[in-house]
Structures are given as structure tokens and as C-alpha cells.
Amino acid sequence: MHKTNLRRAIDPRYAKTMSSAELRAEFMIEDLFKDDEVNLTYTQYDRMIVGGAKPKSGPLAIDAVDQTGTPSWLDRREAVLVNLGTGGTVEAGGETYSLGRCDMLYLGMGTGAVTLSGEDAYFYIISAPAHRAIPAQLVTIDDARQVPLGSRDTCNERVIYQFVHPEGIESCQIVMGMTKLAPGSIWNTMPAHVHERRSEAYIYIDLPEDQNVVHLMGEPDETRHMIVRNEQAVLSPPWSIHSGAGTAAYSFIWAMAGDNMAFTDMDMVAMEDLR
User: Fold this and answer.
1) pTM given for the model
2) Number of domains making up the chain
3) Which of 151, 244, 150, 240 is nearest to 198 (CA)?
4) How sure is the predictor about 166, in pLDDT bands with cuts at 50, 70 and 90?
5) 213 lies in which domain range?
6) DSSP state of 169
7) Hey, how many other C-beta atoms are within 10 angstroms of the C-beta on 184?
8) pLDDT at residue 225 in the model
9) CATH code for the domain of 227
10) Angstrom distance (rounded) from CA 244 to CA 215
11) DSSP letter (8 states) at residue 182
12) Is residue 37 packed enough to be buried (19+ CB in 10 Å), middle (13-18) or exposed (0-12)?
């Protein structure tokens, strides 16, 4: 089964007036992974697609997606697929790829239909418009570039795993990786930042089922929050901060699309300027 939802862009002046339920309806994706379904959300934030697929009983194919306006979804797009389960297989462009947990597969423009398999696999999907064809590339979690950051004193000791970036997997505009917090750390992306030139999406993973993340969003002087649970995703507009504090340690996969691929292209927000 294949489902696609549309999320339109929200002006920050309107976001200030939204209730918790309204914020969740516009900025959260709560049910990404359902047995034998492909669930895609097409957003107007840099035309990103955020999705999930769980081929529990047999292979699932992604080909035509109405919102893209092309015969096949990757005719003018690129995509990155992440296996959050085990024993995953992706067939694309005449090749077959095996993905372990948290391995990432890049697929370039013109790949065609994509078929996902694996009884114990489920896939997180990011896609964005592309301007040229780039060869597919698979990077395992062990081969990703690792960047330690933070400290135990500020409760944000963590490792950033960079997969899709200028020194790693080549892409047209997607920049993507994973951040894993050390035991006892809870904060991600603090001090906070915004980047008006790019949109971002988070998915929180490795969070115990009875624990939550308080995800902060909004303009720096008009912050709002949402309660996020394991394997739920959040859309982050260019005008919004994106940060979170968990009631336990967790990991999250981040993905950006926009004008450039510089990981450090961000406008930092001083702690005293948050409201």
C-alpha cells in the first residue's frame, strides 16, 4: 500500500497562534512505519519528501508519486534510504543493495522504481529535487565519518555520524547524518540555530518506548514545543530552531535540503536570546 500526504508551508506569524494539536498536525509525522505500507509526506519546505516503508509481508515498491508530477518519483529527484531494522534489501537502478541497521543508501536522479524488502527491515526515506544524475552509493554506519561533540557537564555529549556531505556521499542538495547521544546526555543542538537557506527534518530513534523528547521549535524569541516519541519525525522550517531534550538518551537522524551543502552554514542563537 502507498500513501502520500501533503504539508504546505506555514508562516511563522501563524505558527505563533497554534495549539499543541495544530503544531503536531503541521510539523510532526507520527505514524511513519506501518506493516506493508509506504507512507510519504510531501512538504513545501524545499520540496522535501519524508517517509517510511515497512515491507513486513513482502516487497514494497515506490514508483509514481502524484505530488512530484513525474512518471517516476526519482525522475527529477534524489533520495536517501536508511534501514532502521535488520536484514534490509533495496533494488534500484538494476542493482541490489543490502542494508544493516542505520546504513544509508543514496539513490540519484533517474534511478526509476525502488523496491524494498526484508521481513525485519523498515526504511526511513528522505528525498529532494536534483539537477543531475549521481551514482548510487551505500555507506554503512561503521564507515560514516564520526565527529564527537559536547560534554557530560552540559548533558550533550554526543557523536555526529556524517553520511551524505561534501566529504562523504555526493549529492545534489541533501545533507544527512545521525547523532547519537551518550548515556546520561539528553540535549541535542543546543545552543540552537536557524538556517534560512535550508529546511530540515528530524526522526528520533533509540528512545525507550516509555520515554519522550521535548522538541523545541519556533522563532528564537517565540519558541514552542512538541512531545515526540520513538520513531516519530519533525519538520523544521528555515525560520525555526530545532532542538530537543529527552527523558533518556536517544539518537536522531537529521536531513537538510536547500541552497548549499555546507554543514556549518547556520545562524547561531545565543542562549540569552531564546524566549
Assistant:
1) 0.95
2) 1
3) 240
4) confident
5) 2-273
6) B
7) 10
8) 97
9) 2.60.120.10
10) 4
11) P
12) middle
